[in-house]
């Protein structure tokens, strides 16, 4: 039986929409054999996955295989379940969007950044709705992001101006990017600007809290005029880190790990120990104290993740 390939552009509960190599769109569903072989929910196809299968008598692809993922963005399923929910696959860049008004929250952005590093993709921070704040306030927000997220690109945008070249530089033919962020921060508006047409519904800002109304309810992959592919996702206000590996934290706090190499003691806790390179950097202004406080706050969660990984490794052995 002849095989066919394609990219998942929409994923419902049981049905996928798949774009074939020739550009035609078909529906698809996983085979019975596939269901028996999967080990966990995150093994099922998600938007961005490349899938292989054969055509049924009703011109529907029967998915037999999800090809090896280059990256996999995921989050913990809401509630007490420990399942991992796939968000998008094979993404090269993830635009973490936050508006310049009341939605701005560094702790939430930090969690978004961590799950992106864990996925294997590269995070880019996008500050939206910049028309809602003064030039001085905007400059302050950008400085805050560039200091707190050292080494991560920061782009600015609003619905009244052209998409800037900094953001466009990440949109390359054949590559997939994704938008994540809280509800109503302007992801759909930005996508409409990129596509130069209104493919996602947008709504006005609520007067009571200055937040945009949530509009996107499912994940879709769209192809831009230049051949780049973009995934829009529903808003996420809470982001748990239960699914990430400890290596994801290495990216976020690499500056602290590098400074720790200069500490007098190898087991320095960066508290009261003499000869602490981290404390010295804070005192000199080389390291922003806000970043260090965030690191201390995340240590407990990091310890939990390490214990979970060790337990998993022991079971494997």
From TrEMBL:
Q: Where is the EngC GTPase domain?
A: 89-237
Its GO CC terms are: cytoplasm
- Superkingdom: Bacteria
- The reply on keyword Metal-binding is yes
Subcellular compartments: Cytoplasm
PROSITE patterns for this protein: ENGC_GTPASE (PS50936), G_CP (PS51721)
Q: Which InterPro entries does the record cross-reference, listed alphabetically?
A: G_CP_dom, P-loop_NTPase, Ribosome_biogen_GTPase_RsgA, RsgA_GTPase_dom
Q: How is the cofactor bound?
A: Binds 1 zinc ion per subunit.
> Could you tell me which SUPFAM superfamilies the record lists for this protein?
P-loop containing nucleoside triphosphate hydrolases
Q: Is rRNA-binding a UniProt keyword of this protein? A: yes
The EC number(s) this enzyme carries: 3.6.1.-
Obligatory cofactor(s): Zn(2+)
Q: How does it assemble?
A: Monomer. Associates with 30S ribosomal subunit, binds 16S rRNA.
Q: What is its biological role?
A: One of several proteins that assist in the late maturation steps of the functional core of the 30S ribosomal subunit. Helps release RbfA from mature subunits. May play a role in the assembly of ribosomal proteins into the subunit. Circularly permuted GTPase that catalyzes slow GTP hydrolysis, GTPase activity is stimulated by the 30S ribosomal subunit.
Protein's name in the database: Small ribosomal subunit biogenesis GTPase RsgA
Supply the source organism for this entry: Vagococcus hydrophili
User: Which lineage is the organism of this entry classified under, starting from the top rank?
Assistant: Bacteria, Bacillati, Bacillota, Bacilli, Lactobacillales
Gene coding for it: rsgA
